[in-house]
Amino acid sequence: MASTAAGDGSRPGVEGRRPHDPRVVGDAPARLRADAAHNRRALLDAASATFAEEGMDASIARIAARAGIGKGTVFRHFATKQHLVVAIFCDRLDRLADLGAELSTAPDPAAALSEFMTVGVEQQASDRSFCQAATGDTRNDPAVRAASVRLAEVAETLTARARDAGSIRADVTGQDVVLLLGAACQAAAPVAATAPELWRRYLALIFDGLRPQAAHPLPHPAPTRTQLADEAAAAGSAG
Amino acid sequence: MASTAAGDGSRPGVEGRRPHDPRVVGDAPARLRADAAHNRRALLDAASATFAEEGMDASIARIAARAGIGKGTVFRHFATKQHLVVAIFCDRLDRLADLGAELSTAPDPAAALSEFMTVGVEQQASDRSFCQAATGDTRNDPAVRAASVRLAEVAETLTARARDAGSIRADVTGQDVVLLLGAACQAAAPVAATAPELWRRYLALIFDGLRPQAAHPLPHPAPTRTQLADEAAAAGSAG
DNA sequence: AGAGAAGCGGACCGCGCGGTCAGGTTATGA
DNA sequence: TCATAACCTGACCGCGCGGTCCGCTTCTCT
Predict the structure, then answer these.
(1) Among A17, A233, B123, B217, whose CB has the most other CB atoms within 10 angstroms?
(2) Same-domain pairing of B233 and B123
(3) Residues 84..143 of A with a Cβ closer than 8 Å to B: which?
(4) How many domains is chain B built from?
(5) What are the residue ranges of helices labelled H in chain A?
(6) CA of B21 vs C1' of D30, distance in Å?
(7) Could you identify the residue whose CA is nearest to the C1' atom of nucleotide C6?
(8) Which of A179, A201, A216 lies at the smallest CB-CB distance from B204?
(9) Which GO MF terms are attached to this record (chains A, B) (predicted)?
(10) For every one of its 239 residues, what pLDDT tens digit does chain B have, with 9 covering 90 and above?
């Protein structure tokens, strides 16, 4: 799984300490040797699966073993465990955004939004690391923030269409929709082992809350589109 | 904070390996010396606050320092870090259940349910460890399971009253309500630093989904009252 | 084919964690 | 007051983690 091109594992500030460090994209070739490309993909697949099963606490050693490569090779491709996490998390976000972009021209706006949310929750429900990453330091990474913003924009488009069609209450934003994905997932999480599809129930319940018929005034304004960036700034200045 | 009598930190199977280990309640005195009782309370308060701020990854050393006691003292009261976590988590659950029990005789059932959920989410929103504990191994502990069952029963009472009053759709159970507390909390978590009260918005949205006006058929049956126990069994057999 | 860059692997390091223990300290009850 | 059980402390242990390093292998290009 997760065999598409995921992330690059490079940060601008990181300078190679050995001749031609592949983590530096720079203006250099940035061309991967065939075996290196193969290992990289195996690593990303193994990391994706392992993080999904064990959460972000999964050790690099286990991931490397699963990918059939040495531990050192992992750090050749990603300077830090965090960089690896970021690459995979961004990939997840991007894929969901891609789906949303496709759905944004679908004939039935309400069905499109529902489909978008269903896939989004399903993705999270089968991935223990997703919620952890959404709440932890990972969120502050610039690449993650960029992907989050894009996802929010796509969600906003979908939401606006459904709203204009009268399928969704007027006071709900795309940001709300994105954040509610994690909500449905979290509700079902405590009993995920015995009822792996329970998230469908809570997604449906939440979706009912989005309908105009249910609308009661909301006691708090929606988060702004760039709230995640503000969040990072707050986290940086604080603790 | 959290100064009420919280947990006992003892497991039946644990046998003391030193003369009169206080972690064993047994049929023995189980009477704490004055200074020991004081330290224990300081420990529980410090652990509660630290876990809330830093999550369950907070180290025992930090907690001990905050409580002004030695690390060894922590393990004198709680055989394991997990036991300490369980004690605190059970305390949280019990307190919420207590509130629910009080509210179960309030005149307005819908307002009572709303109040119950508001306090429940508020409690979690200010406690980083709560969601982690609700999803991790902690949930399998027998004491936690007992507290969870009690909480579910109280929630069921509140829900039934609101349902009978026609304030809540018929296909929603107390278990649903409990699980949805975590949902509202999780939705707001990613932007908790910049919008600490945002959970109110999502709780209101979810509550709107509980109203009869919004009711659409739910695609998955509600979890049973003892689902958490089954969950533990499944986790035990699997792994 | 051969030179040399690119890539690989796994022993190794320092760290901080949960948990232990021997020996000093203090509350308690007679 | 005093004997003793209960209690506290902090140095200590083993472990597994993220991350480093360098000798060796493998691909690539001419």
Answers:
(1) B123
(2) yes
(3) 131, 134-135, 139
(4) 2
(5) 34-54, 60-67, 71-77, 81-103, 109-125, 128-135, 142-164, 174-188, 199-210, 227-237
(6) 78
(7) A33
(8) A216
(9) DNA-binding transcription factor activity; transcription cis-regulatory region binding
(10) 444 444 444 433 333 345 567 766 555 556 889 999 999 999 999 999 999 999 999 999 999 999 999 999 999 999 999 999 999 999 999 999 999 999 999 999 999 999 999 999 999 999 988 878 878 889 889 999 999 999 999 999 999 999 999 999 999 999 999 999 999 999 999 998 899 999 999 999 999 999 999 999 999 999 987 776 566 666 544 43
Chain B residues in contact with A167 by the CB 8 A cut-off are none
Which residue range(s) make up the domain with B25? 1-79
- C-alpha to C-alpha distance for A134 and A58, rounded to whole angstroms: 17
A145 close contact with B: CB closer than 8 A:
no
Planar angle of CA A194, A199, A201, nearest 5 degrees: 105
Put simply, the answer to whether B201 touches A131 (Cβ < 8 Å) is no
Sign of the alpha-carbon dihedral angle for B112, B116, B119, B121:
negative
Strand D bases within 7 angstroms of protein beta carbons: 5-12, 16-22, 26-28
A170 in the same domain as A144: yes
3-state helix, strand, coil in chain B (%, to 5): 65, 0, 35
